[in-house]
Structure formats: structure tokens, C-alpha cells
């Protein structure tokens, strides 16, 4: 089964159990991947997190029931996973712009999201510049933080971490420490599913460094791998997500490679992040 079919299988699984308390582990299992890689791929392709997709779909179905049945609002609140009618009403209004009572009376318009079907763009109209690189293991030095995948805490925490290291001088210190082949500051994701039961990742802001690092930084060995190194051109934050989407929606479906499951890298330069000529890279381990 191809990865697109696997992803659709996971989406179908969510839809068939839309009223259940689904875990990221059980969803990712349908796609035969880890929680982290499923969550990341899903968000890249759809521009929405798994949790937000489930919330949107449940509130869309709840709106349909309000319009077409005489079920009590309190019963629908519990049915669609809300502990109180007040919590349900607040979430309903946030999505639809009207209250459940107004929806029942057909006052106002509803903002409903349909069941998701993954479609992959194989046209390749916009060229992608990349190279395949084989490297032995190498060391990076930097700081790391652990982020839980529950409630998608990593999606909230990683941007905050970057704000902090850009503001407290850490990035500058790492730039001075860089003496390896990869020039720049690295964002490194390490999936920890094989070492502990709770789904989480270590996220590193680091740089390639040969030798002992200063006491301010930890070190991590990146395993030997074949890498797909993709060029990213343009200002942040928009340029990087655009290339990630191209990789998953165009490059992987039309190539024989799969993600190796080991740490992946984003490489940032010390240039002006708003520059239209900014150059960055995405390194993906391949098998």
C-alpha cells in the first residue's frame, strides 16, 4: 500500500469513529507510521492539525443534526465530546459564527467542513531543486526540549522555542560554534517513540560541530544516512512550509524513496529572514 493510500486509510478510520475518543497512536497505526510523522505529514498536506480536523468535522456534523433533527442541544453537546452545553456552545460559535440555538432556528449561515479526501498533485509544474547526499554519522551541538505529541503540544511549543533562542543570543553562539559541512542553524526533530511509551519528540536548535562542545550545549549524533537535500528559496516563514508540501504531495509519490524515520533537518542561514533571496534547506533521511 502506498503512502497516499495509507494516509487516506487513516482519515477513513477517523471518520468511521468520529464520535470516539481517538488517540494519535491508533490513527497513525492505520497509516503504518509513527504519531509524529503522521501528525507532521497530515498538517503539511492539509494545512490543519489532526485535532483541529476532528473538531471541525464534529462541529459540522453537530450543525447538520441541529438543522435536521429535534435532538436536544445538551444531548448533542455530550454526543460530540463536550462536557457541558456551555463548552459546546462556545466551540460551535467559534466555528460557525452563530449559537446552537440560532442554528436550530435556521438563523444565520453555517461554516461546515466536508470529509477529507487526499489528492496528490503529480503535475510537477513548479520545479524542485534537490540532490541526494550520502553521509556518515555526524555530530550536532545545541539545545533540546522535549515536546509531547498529546494535544499537539509540539506544534505550539516549537515556534515559541525559536522565538526564545533568537531573542536570547543562543543562535549567535551556535553560529560561532559551526565547523561542520552543513553551514547554518539546524532545527532537528527526533522521534522518541522507540525509547518511551508516551508519544513525544525531542526538538533541537543546533549546528553541526566537530569536537567537544561548550558546557552551554548538548550534543547529538545524527546517524549515517542517504539524504534528500531540498533547496528552499524565499522569506520565512512561508517558504519552508511551501517546500515541505511539495515534498510530500509531489516528490515522494513520484519517487521510489521513503522517509527513513530517523531525524530530519531544517537548515537556516543567518541572513535576513525576510529577504526574498533567502536560501535554506530541508534534509530528509531516505530509504
TrEMBL record:
InterPro entries: AraC_E-bd, Cass2, Homeodomain-like_sf, HTH_AraC, HTH_AraC-typ_CS, MarA-like, Reg_factor_effector_dom_sf, Tscrpt_reg_AraC-type_HTH. One of its GO terms (molecular function) is DNA-binding transcription factor activity. Residues 8-106 form the HTH araC/xylS-type domain. The keyword DNA-binding applies. Keywords: DNA-binding, Transcription, Transcription regulation. It holds the Pfam family HTH_18. SUPFAM superfamilies: Homeodomain-like, Probable bacterial effector-binding domain. The keyword Cell inner membrane does not apply. This is AraC family transcriptional regulator. It comes from Cytobacillus solani. The lineage of its organism: Bacteria, Bacillati, Bacillota, Bacilli, Bacillales.
